[in-house]
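Notebook entry, structure prediction.
Reason for the run: the old model in the group folder had no record of what sequence produced it. Starting over properly, with the input documented here first.
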Amino acid sequence: MTFQPSFPEGFLWGGAISANQAEGAYNRGGKGLSTADIIELIEPEDRTSMKLPFPGRQDIEHVLDTEEDRVFPKRFGIDFYDTYKEDIELLKELGFKTFRISIGWARIFPTGTETEPNEEGLAFYDNVLDEMHKHGIEPLVTLSHYEIPLHLATEYGGFYGRETVDHFARYAETVFERYKGKVKYWITFNEINSLMMAPYVGGGLIPDVVPEGRMLEATYQTAHHQLVANARAIEACRRISPDARIGCMVIGMINYPNSPHPEDVLAAHQDMRNTLFFTDVFTKGGYPSYMNRVFAENDIQLKTEPEDEELLRNNTIDFLPFSYYMSAVSAREETTGEKAGGNLLTKLKNPYLEASDWGWQIDPVGLRTLLNQLYERYDTPMFIVENGLGAYDKMEEDGSVHDPYRIEYLKSHIEQMKEAIGDGVELIGYTTWGPIDLVSFSTSEMSKRYGFVYVDRDDYGEGSNKRSKKDSFYWYQNVIQTNGEEL
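New structure, fully documented this time:
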């Protein structure tokens, strides 16, 4: 007899966007500048790295002083601020059960330090959430998706400063109170482990606040404060909205050893800890023992408060949300070889995998393996909140967009999700990244498209902004209608 796994009834199919990549209206409605608002378009010839991965105060001031000569695509996004009704109606037609958005923190507290929130910002998200409920779509809301108020970065070094924990806690409580009953699923931080690779993007950390030679320590200090902020938000959510469920998101990464050489296997195991350190803390309620050696060998002395240990212990997550785009190959230090491209992550190329237009290696089976590893380790419900293929799409003369490569990518990953469910993994939902084309996080370009809906806008903000359905729109619509049975 052949075993046929299936998706559970009530599975949450949908898609995900972020405020800073979609909304636009960066200076309207009382919004303040965020750390994302000073990230520029990266031209093709400069795409080996981000232009501002780690800016100092002078860099930020220089960008703001010369902004008329620069292109900031995240400032205009896809005008979701004005088109949210039209866009949510399209998602309803797609059949979405859930839609992941983020709240722009600087839209609620423009500098992050105010004691009273910006009512116009709060009202905007009221309207978005009401529109989702009108169409029967369950909101999944992220508090901080690769942005914090810019003032908190220049004033405190973002979450490096303990003060930012208090400001975040006030912000979280404000939105929990405001949207109580409207939001059942919350995520505190987007891809919190990205901080270790991109400290400015992940935590607002700038070099000015870091003592010379103490960057690794400062990064872990920032991580500690974010983990404490996560715990405080969980505590507030359960107090204010006890029926809600809350999690903290990581970049889901699986690391393969480059060979059976024991040191390659060890390297893969240690690289996995870049993810597991964070998930261990917010699922198990404390720092894992392996971090003692990391801190000792790197002379890292974290500054903590007496209440931190109890906060972490008593406020663990309800579900584990993660993104999955690729796997990685780990090897001992002396190993050389061709590197694979990746957003924040560059490892050895896996010769058994194909890659996207941006060099991201495609590994659907790795998703099944990762789901099993995480579930076996934590016995916590899983939620894949980002997965998708960034590609160059072409609109034909008749307005159609044929994207069989995207359909094949998503189909292969959904198949492996179903297999993981058959393995016993409790998977509660799946939100593809960028169901409507939006500005890329890594390069701030529109050319890198993920959506089921094409947006007529280029890297410089030019175009009609018209929405058009791609072939994948109708494919995913049928996937949802059949609860994943027809792929």
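Summary: Residues 215-240 form the longest helix (26 residues).
The old model has been moved to the deprecated folder.
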